[in-house]
Amino acid sequence: MGESNQKKVVVIGAGFGGLQAVKKLSQNNNLDITVIDKKNHHLFQPLLYQVATAVLSPADIAIPTRSLVGESKNVTVVLGEATKIDLKTKTVYYQNTSTNYDYLILSAGARSSYFGNDHWEKYTIGLKNLKDALKIRHKLLISFEKAELSGDPEVVKSLLNYVIIGGGPTGVELAGSIAELSHQIIRDEFHTIDPALSKITLIEASPRLLMTFDPSLGEFTKNV
């Protein structure tokens, strides 16, 4: 690997934080950097909602990790899942092997938070990865197909009823994208139903939508 006088840096996770650290640190030739990730691609999470609504394909937002750091000669990309960290020996274990480090960066990503209501998880779908996005996509598109074949107005009403919990950027974007899908993109593709009659409910516990943004933006979004 690197020369003996190089310091060894191990980065767990090739998300935004991990890759930003790698790009910055790779400019220092005195560092030997190893990136460990259980996926072989970097996922552009802000556009997951467009995969979920069939606007984009998974390949559009999944970029091979090696292509992003491949020009850096002091960076090694490893496909694997870190399973244990020994802080005393400064060792990271992954798959059936291990590697030592001088410095460790943990940027393994995040999971959906249910804010103390973890029992919701089995009834809902998060939106943190491609698996989630594709699951939503499947359920969304299948709901229109089932409604088209139903013939029962009450069943159709139930099938075209979508509830999104969370009025932050992801929730708002997903709600807007489902509305665009049903009102514009596929509206003329069905004969027995009108997708534009879909009901989209956005639930937010805070006083307004988009709490991290200017209040005027949240108010505007509410009235769209």
From TrEMBL:
Q: Which domain of life is it from?
A: Bacteria
Enzyme Commission number: 1.6.5.9
The stretch of residues making up the signal peptide is none
Give one GO molecular function term: NADH dehydrogenase (quinone) (non-electrogenic) activity
The answer to keyword Glycosyltransferase applying to this record is no
Pfam families this protein is in?
A: Pyr_redox_2 (PF07992)
The record's keywords, sorted A to Z, are: FAD, Flavoprotein, NAD, Oxidoreductase
Database matches in Gene3D superfamilies:
3.50.50.100
Q: Which reaction does it catalyse?
A: a quinone + NADH + H(+) = a quinol + NAD(+)
- Span of domain FAD/NAD(P)-binding: 7-222
Extract the InterPro entries matched here: FAD/NAD-bd_sf, FAD/NAD-binding_dom, NDH-2
Q: Which family does it belong to?
A: Belongs to the NADH dehydrogenase family.
> What's this protein's name?
NADH:ubiquinone reductase (non-electrogenic)
Q: What is the species of this protein?
A: Leptospira interrogans str. 2006001854
